[in-house]
Specification:
The protein has about 290 residues and is an alpha/beta fold. It has a single domain (about 20-285), classed as 3-Layer(aba) Sandwich (Rossmann fold), CATH 3.40.50. The chain is about 30% helix and about 20% strand. The chain has a 10-stranded mixed β-sheet, sandwiched between helices. It is globular and about 45 Å long. The protein starts with a helix and ends with a helix. Bound molecules: 2-acetamido-2-deoxy-beta-D-glucopyranose (3 copies). Pfam families: Esterase_PHB.
């Protein structure tokens, strides 16, 4: 396994900010013993939005803080960034566990939602503008959180991840786990994928997170098919059919897959492998923060 690709996002540390990334202790329920880091820009917007940003396997919250330019945009626009960090399972999120795949069931997902609650109550953040993004294992966890906690997240963006519950039934979700069926492109029908989401929170009839799925066509570690499967899932959950593909969008060489009117489910595919291709402006527009 090309494990080094997971940690290559540890780019140079950003030093230009007045504010800095802070570790938070005792933020609330934390059943799997993960860690919380927060970035609060010096000039916080009134009733600020929150973005939860999830690191890949082998990464940490502080590494992922340096892995995108979201902190610079937080300085400009006043939103809060939460960087959860897991020390477990090769620093991969527990996306295979029933706990995380169940609303209020525990696991890493519950600890992350309790970080969101802490941030809302401590800093007066806006409960209606909570977003989640992540790369690789973080992209997988983005789909898990959107499925298990639809009431918490207004929108999500999963980079090089897998559908909610794709690893369900596998013993682990790391590049070293014996069962890589999910990462190799496990296929279900849209209805089956949708049922995984609905069964995570039976009886829930409220809003569902708008989802953007970003994937490299040449990704052999978490195959491009995984992105297409995630789109089948969210298109079923939102009840929006694929309408069209737009070539050279959002930029040259990429293709945008538009579902319905494109406001609820969208796929972005480009010719790259397993690497984080986060276009922050594009992401923040999807979240409605630009
Ligand atoms: C995660 O790692 C921490 C620190 O090593 C440990 O205390 C905790 O039990 C682990 N959690 C799980 C679910 O393995
Ligand atoms: C988060 O806050 C909501 C609303 O107060 C509450 O219903 C939920 O149980 C909390 N979840 C966690 C994980 O703390
Ligand atoms: C492998 O994992 C998939 C989920 O990713 C699961 O459906 C399948 O049953 C697992 N296979 C075995 C042999 O455990």
């Amino acid at each position: 396994m090309k494990f080094s690709t997971f940690v290559s996002v540890a780019a140079s540390a950003s030093t230009a900010f007045g504010a800095s990334l802070q570790q938070v202790w005792n933020w609330g329920a934390n059943p799997s013993n993960i860690q919380m880091y927060i970035y609060r820009p010096d000039r916080l917007a009134a009733n600020p939005a929150i973005i939860v940003a999830l690191h890949p396997c082998g990464g940490t919250g502080p590494q992922w803080f340096s892995g995108t330019r979201l902190p610079q945009y937080a300085d400009q626009h006043g939103f809060i960034l939460i960087y959860p960090s897991t020390p477990n399972q090769s620093n991969c999120w527990d996306v295979h566990n029933t706990a995380s795949l169940t609303h209020n069931g525990g696991g890493d997902a519950y600890g992350i939602v309790s970080m969101v609650n802490y941030t809302i109550s401590t800093y007066g953040a806006n409960r209606d503008r909570v977003y989640v993004m992540g790369f690789s294992s973080g992209g997988m966890m983005t789909n898990v959180l959107a499925g298990s906690y639809p009431e918490v997240f207004e929108a999500g963006a999963a980079y090089s991840g897998t559908a909610h519950a794709c690893f369900f039934g596998a013993p682990g979700a790391t590049p070293f786990s014996p069962n890589q069926t999910c990462a190799q492109g496990l296929s279900h029908t849209p209805q089956q994928w949708g049922n995984f989401v609905r069964n995570s929170y039976p009886g829930y009839n409220g809003r569902r997170p708008r989802m953007q799925i970003v994937h490299g066509n040449n990704d052999w570690l978490v195959r491009a098919q995984c992105g297409h499967e995630a789109l089948k899932q969210w298109s079923n959950v939102h009840g929006v059919a694929k309408a069209r593909e737009v070539h050279n969008s959002p930029q040259g060489g990429w293709t945008t897959h538009v579902y319905g009117d494109g406001t609820k489910v969208q796929g972005l595919f480009g010719n790259f492998g397993h690497e984080p291709r986060v276009d922050e402006q594009q992401l923040l527009r999807w979240f409605g923060l630009l």
